[in-house]
Amino acid sequence: MAEARDPIADLRRIAFLLERANEATYRVRAFRSAAKALAGLSAAELAERAGNGTLTELAGVGDVTARCVAESLAGEEPVYLRRLVATEGSDLDAEATALRAALRGDCHTHSDWSDGGSPIEEMALAAVELGHEYLVLTDHSPRLTVARGLTAERLRRQLDHVAQVNAALPEGFRILTGIEVDILADGSLDQDDDLLGRLDVVVGSVHSGLKDERSKMTRRMLKAVANPHLDILGHVTGRMVSSRPAGVTGPGDRGHRARTRAESDFDADVVFAACAEHDTAVEINSRPERQDPPKRLIRRALEAGCRFAINTDAHAPGQLDWQRFGCERAALCGVPADRVINTWSAEQLVAWTHHRP
User: Fold this and answer.
1) Could you tell me if 344 and 104 are in contact, meaning their C-beta atoms sit under 8 angstroms apart?
2) Where are the alpha helices (DSSP H) in 258-314?
3) Whether the Cβ atoms of residue 75 and residue 2 lie closer than 8 Å to each other
4) Is the link from the previous residue into 293 a cis peptide, with omega within 30 of 0?
5) Mean per-residue pLDDT for 304-318?
6) Torsion angle of alpha carbons 332, 333, 334, 337, nearest 10°?
7) CB atoms inside a 10 Å sphere around CB 175
8) Can you tell me the distance from the alpha carbon of 69 to that of 13, in angstroms, rounded to the nearest whole number?
9) Are 14 and 31 spatial neighbours (Cβ–Cβ below 8 Å)?
10) How confident is the model over 117-159, as pLDDT tens digits?
């Protein structure tokens, strides 16, 4: 008889692959909920329930997930998992593959402290499995209430929690502290200066007033870029090329149901020149529904001498593997690895964020 597999690990792996494949949220939630429900059972009770067909009596476990558990306990790779693995996405070309291999971390991610779907620990362990050396946690700032943005007090508590999590993570990996701070209407950043100064990485993004007229948006972005706390200019045009993806299962899910949205209007050449002057990196956002900036603006930022950060803006563990989409677009635009800040080690990255002009 084949040795039993770990059914909870298989359920989580299925959820990860569904997130990565941009499948419907309810499918992801079914497998993560089942894994959570079964995690509290002893091995003996789990086997007994699988044997007598009572797994589905547990809240969060349905027929499909119960069948996966039974197959795992029988030592078989669940059919559902096998099909997902067999239909994974297409390979990257050589240039994009080389750029993806050069990345050592992700500088824009979210947890269930704001609008992400998973705990910090779960996001970190998924990053470890992907081979990352670090993960920058960048939950939202207070003004973005729809995303449960962190007040100064909640952010302080998160910093303490991250320190505790880091102490328990595998050697060679660390969570870097950060925030995705709102760029407000006047260009100021939506968090206390003293807290921004404590963080390892600050991503700044425009989330409101996206239809501001050109000169106003340009002034707003220029003031933010000139702020010494801002390290990365996030999803610079704010565009949405498709409906929000699946897999976001957190309390702020409603905030990601955006339909398509046009780019904000601003003077890209002036803003990118300011990014180069202040050594602020331009984010290449890997989310499939954003693809921001568009390729023409990536090329203009490259010509302006900007650095880049290829980030996932992940709100769920499986989305951490979306960096390949950003690498594909960066490679098409000729972005070299030495212009991408997350090809650096954690130590190099933090040294840069703390000593920029």
Assistant:
1) yes
2) 268-278, 295-304
3) yes
4) yes
5) 97
6) -90
7) 25
8) 12
9) yes
10) 999 999 999 999 999 999 999 999 999 999 999 999 999 999 9
> How many angstroms separate the CA atoms of 52 and 50, rounded?
6
| Both structure tokens of 337 | 């690895």
Q: Is the dihedral of CA 34, 40, 42, 45 positive or negative?
A: negative
Could you give the CA distance from residue 61 to residue 47 in angstroms, rounded to a whole number?
14
CA distances from 79 to 26, 151, 250 (A): 19, 44, 28
User: Partners of 292 in the beta sheet?
Assistant: 285
Residue whose tokens read 């002034």: 219
Q: Residue 240: phi, psi to the nearest 5?
A: -130, 120
Question: Please, which residues have CB within 8 angstroms of residue 345's CB and are 6 or more apart in sequence?
Answer: 104, 133
How far separated are the first and last CA of the chain, in Å rounded? 64
List of residues 6+ apart from 24 with CB closer than 8 A? 246
- 90 vs 9, 265, 291, 313, CA distance in Å? 25, 34, 18, 21
Strand-pair partners of 283: 309
- Whether residue 46 is predicted with pLDDT greater than 50 in this model: the reply is yes
* Residue whose pair of structure tokens reads 């996030």 in the numeric block: 234
Beta strands in the chain (DSSP E): 105-109, 134-137, 174-182, 201-205, 232-233, 281-285, 308-311
**What local confidence, expressed as pLDDT, does residue 90 receive?**
59
| Mean pLDDT confidence for 195-213 | 97
Q: Find, among 352, 325, 262, 266, the residue nearest to 301 by Cα.
A: 266
- In angstroms, the Cα distances linking 265 to 92, 213, 272, 346, 352 are 32, 7, 14, 34, 30
Residue 156 C-beta-side C-alpha neighbours within 13 Å = 7
